[in-house]
Amino acid sequence: MLTAEGEPTMKRFIVAGLMLVATAVPAAAQGPIKIGFFAPLTGFAAADGASAKHSAEIAVEEINGAGGIKGRKIELVVYDDRHDSKEAVAVASKLIEKDQVVGVVSGSYSMPSRVTAPIFAKAGLPVTVAYAVHPDVTKAGPCVFRNGFLGQVEGAAGAESAVKLQKARRIAVLTVDNDFGRVASAAFIERAKKLGAEIHSEQVYKLGEKEFGPYLTKIKDEPIDLIYHTSYYNEGSQIARKARELGIKAALEGTEGIDSPKFLELAGPAAEGVTFTTNLNRDDPRPEVQNFLKRYQAKAGTGADMVGASAYDAVRILARGLETGGTDPKAICAALTGLKDYHGITGKITRFVKGEVTKPVQIQIVKDGKVRSFAVIDNPEVITPPVQ
Amino acid sequence: MYLLTVATLVAIYAILTLGLNTVTGLAGQISLGHAAFFGVGAYTTAILTVRHGWSFWPALLAAVAASAAVGALVGAAAIRVRDDFLAITTMGVNFVLVSVFLYFPFFGGALGIGGIPGPRLLGQEVAKPGFLALTIGGVVLALAVNLWLGRSWAGLALQALREDEDAARAAAVDVRKFKILAFTIGTGLAGLAGAFYASFLTFISAGDFGFPFSITVLCMLVFGGIGTNRGAVAGAIVLGAAPELFRFLADYRMLTYGALLVLLVRFQPAGLLGDDSAIWRRLRGARAA
Amino acid sequence: MIVQQLVNGLTVGSLYALMALGLTMVYGVLRVLHVAHAAVFTLGAYGGLWTFTLTGSFWLALLGAMAVAVAAGLAMERWVYWPLLAKPTVATLIASIGVFVGLEEVYRLVAGPEPHAFRVTLRINDVRIAGVLVTAPQVLVIAVTVALLAALWLFLTRTSLGLALRAVSQDREIAAACAMNVRRIVSLNFALGSALAGAAGMLVGVYYNSVSPTMGDVTAYKGLAIIVLGGLGSVPGTVVGALLIGILETAFIGFVEFPFPRDAWAFLAMIVVFLLRPQGLLGR
């Protein structure tokens, strides 16, 4: 703004003024960059919602602490979707219209993500999905990017672990009756059969079931090597407890649904030896992973879980889009579509194909009361998402 | 657009509360399963439009017919029972229907049904303001139906039922016919709301139509003033919009509902605008004066 | 296998019975559907957990659970139900739902939405009879239930207070005319029913190692179906109904392979009984 003599001229002053005005449009140009975030903060899924929220906040704190996006801070606009469709729709409208966010992170389950994705797509906003598994979420539009696994991928990876690594030949399946459970179990069964294992039975139970006596009594005296259960930590812990109570010796393998310190707490000693597919490896030596685990423990008072780690990554992925693309939603979308080799704490994303990632699946195991690494499944045949 | 969204949802709630008023308010039959009929309408619309390519309008009519039909069945079964028995039965119907929606793949099972198209008028998809107008039209229709019912001979009979079922029976009022009529109309209206809901959200699943939602609708009706149409609409507006206006109360919402119900029943059973409520009496007094 | 599943069914049925008895007893004297009973059940679980954390004794915790439940039940009777007796039934039903919803939220706000573990080291062993396994937790549940039911039965049939209770349950007005202190009998009913629910809550908490604010939800609805099935107001009817539902649910999972959602069976059974015999299995 100063001339060579060190004095501002009128002309330069006007130019500066015009530049200022130009950058003032759109309205919040120099203020923080607003991104939307929704999760089930109340209701039955409140624990996962809290985990997602804490982790998203950690991500934002880190980004802002390091200077923000090109000097501008990120502001997370958080809403509770109560795991209810109508609520989610209202939240989506709010984020688009009232808060005028430039991008959205879904820290929620499949149902709210599914119902809001088309709304965000219509408004041209990019969405990163932390862990919701339903295939339709990414089909809503070209700007929906899922960080987590598709149910199909997870089920297939579970089969690799069960049959190839744990050498199970006869497997009993317990499926939770919701979209996640059905899809994952179906994929598990298909892959396990392909690998030569025999599926003894598949039993479907309701979400929230506590009484597994009848289900497990059926297989108690059968020569089962492994029980695969798609479940969340409530049901999963009941399955583990009842199986041990009945004296069932089969191995137990679960999914990311039980990736939570709550599983360990509720299952108690029955959790020992249980394996599960997930995207968070607690033994990952990378500093960003260990730092996140420490920060989460400090902030929330409990160990981190898959939901939290995924939410953290989803926020950071969107932030990467902001860094490389700017604050125009279309540009962010383009940036994310062209994203290559992104190293998240939940694994390396080579690139997004139709919004889905190809990412190795972690198999974790409970050993001496702690969650440790068991194996990694990175067979491309298994982990490539089935999208055309 | 955000206001349009909230307004549309409130209008859908109003159709629901008006329908519940027909059954519970006008006919005195305690229904704790209203959400199930809401679901029947929504699923009918979803299945017909998504799987069979029907357009919205005929699907809407089918939705109303389907829920009215199921309602008539329940009404017929309700013949033998009264009061608390009926309450539990309707609750049971709610549970059974939701289980059916959840279990059978015909209803999309655990995955629900998505991609439900919106209504089209003259070849164009109806935009958000148009849809709101549509749902408000539904509210007006529901009001008209209830008013007509209240003033007709059927309405008088229903009133007799409400006051004293035994006396009505003794006076040779065909209790059966009127119970079934009330159920049919009330649940038909719930089906109408369901059709709008399915189109609006474009995705439905069994969990949307469970017992907790039946309670929410009942709460709205009781809060507004059970037995009155203005109460039904008022309850839907206030309790439907309140969560949006008072987001900071979000964590205490259900607690507030619970406390509200207890306090209302205890101290102001006429609700906000019921015949005997403090507010209504004041409004009427002001008018008369 | 059949007997094994029968054991499962009886265990679950026992828990249902303890919970549903309070419902039927309250209906018997007040003709009120005490939906909030489920909140008493849950409070028993939290009360038992809290007492156990303080004392480390299972039996003290059980007493604590029952005491807390009784207090809650009596409070509800005094401040919610008794004042509303003159109003139509829909009023008490709505009020009860309001209390239920509100209390669950209070539990959530105070204790958090996540389940708490309730780990009790049992000093009993599994029992094996003729090849049938009854696990230690199952032994505990069945034993406590039998004990409590026996105590209740003795009370209702062998004591004058118990007879008075049954009289009031038959006909409140005539009982009052016979100069019985109806109010006190009603309170006693609430106390007994709540005590049983509190015990049930804690047993469920221990059996599943999980205490959460919404643990009473399904049992609430199912309990209502069970008491209608058994015959509103009938104590033996409720016990029979509860055991029956426990066995029915287990049978359909264990044998029929028709995975219709488990909770719907209670309602289906209720609706069927309704249509064929509206007064319930053992109702008057």
CATH topology of chain B: ABC transporter involved in vitamin B12 uptake, BtuC
Portion in beta strands of chain C: under 5%
**What share of the residues of chain B lie within helices?**
over 70%
Report the β-strand fraction of chain B as a percent range: under 5%
- Helical percent range of chain C? over 70%
Question: Care to describe what's here?
Answer:
The complex is a heterotrimer of chains A (388), B (289) and C (284). Chain A has 388 residues and is α/β, with parallel strands linked by helices. Helix content of chain A is 44%, strand content 20%. Chain A is elongated, with a radius of gyration of 23 Å. Chain B is mainly α and 289 residues long. Chain B has one domain: ABC transporter involved in vitamin B12 uptake, BtuC. With 284 residues, chain C is mainly α. In chain C, a hairpin with a 2-residue loop joins strand 1 (127-129) and strand 2 (132-134). In chain C, helix 1 runs parallel beside helix 5 (136-158), helix 1 (2-30) packs antiparallel against helix 10 and helix 9 (217-230) crosses helix 10. The longest helix of chain C is centred in the N-terminal third of the chain and has 29 residues, at 2-30. Chain C is globular and about 55 Å long. At the B-C interface, helix 4, helix 9 and helix 11 of B face helix 4, helix 9 and helix 11 of C.
